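Notes from hallway chat w/ T.B., transcribed later so I don't forget. T.B. wanted the structure written out for a chain they're using in a teaching module, and asked if we could keep both sequence and structure tokens in one place. Agreed to drop them here.
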Amino acid sequence: MPSRSLTVAAVARLKPPAAGQTDYFDRGFPGLALRVGYGGSKTWVYFHRLHGKLRRHTLGRFPAMELAAARDAWRAARKLVDKGESPAHRRPPEADAFGNVADEWLKRDQAENRSAAAVAAILARHVLPLWRDRMIGTITRRDAVELIDRVADRAGTTMARRLQAHLHRLFRWSVGRSIIELTPLADLPKPGKEVKRDRVLERAEIAAVWKATDAVGLPFGAIFRLLLLTGARREEIAALRWSEIAGDAIRLAGARTKNGEPHVIPLAPQAAALIAALPRIADSEFVFTTTGLTPVSGWSRARRRLDAAAAEANAGAALPPWRAHDLRRTVATHLQRPPIGAGLQVIEAVLGHLSGSRAGIVGIYQRHTFDAEKRTVLEAWAREIERLVSAPNEAANVVT
């Protein structure tokens, strides 16, 4: 087999053989050869012995891979062979680009996460435009700090803290998969302070919101009322299906709950009557929908109408800022307060929580569902809402 010190010009001048193929070995680079086929193709190959057997590994094609690149590839392959590893099984360099690693992480680590779509959207908006094609191993702590600071300036501290948590998990997963050696986010302080929501609507505010739902109309007026009557999560009610309503209860499968556990929401007579009075779109599985094909959307617009109606009923004074999720906290708080005075375990069962008093070993062995107790307190809460709404002074003067 011919052997010579290959040069860029010599590689370009090599003629194809009349038949078959010829290997031109590069002197000084043991095992590196340019294989020239009779049809004119030129391919860089590396001949080596691994575990006693002679093997051939294709490095790339000429001219896409030029001489210098072929020698670099030969060096990398030879290092693997020296360690007893096959270069044929080497991870392709582009697989370690941040965008590809992130895609793999979303598929492998986040597939069962109910918020996987939201996590992917955050990465797509704030990270991928800057890091998509960067090798993940080249991303430094300084790079991470600058990115998180940039997000904090543009989208706020809460989003920056959320992004840092997602990136921290992604990099730790990459360490566990031996993609990188260390995570650049190790012990990195989070920006700012976490803002914990503690907004609870008081009795007069509950009455004002309930009355304002008349002005909002369907479907959101009924949604807000059900959120108040049940303490359910917004997504659980907004995407409610007719098949999930069984008699006087809503029965959610684990795929529809945040903790992945089935959850039964007893319906007080007021809640059951509200659902029974709803119009039903033919052939649609969703209780609340405007298209018949997807759950309802347009929360921001509905909230503006609701707030305007509540302010009008409150002598023009707007309610202090609140969110839909605050209704869930409101229900939990008022269930514990007099006149209902429900116990903590019952309230957690109403909310579908597995933390708190039902966490750890208690949650494993204590499997009582509290369905009867949940029904009792939710029926009492529905009567309390009726009393608040009917009381003439509850919906007035919310803001002092």
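Follow-up for T.B.: The radius of gyration is 32 Å. Might be a good example for the class.
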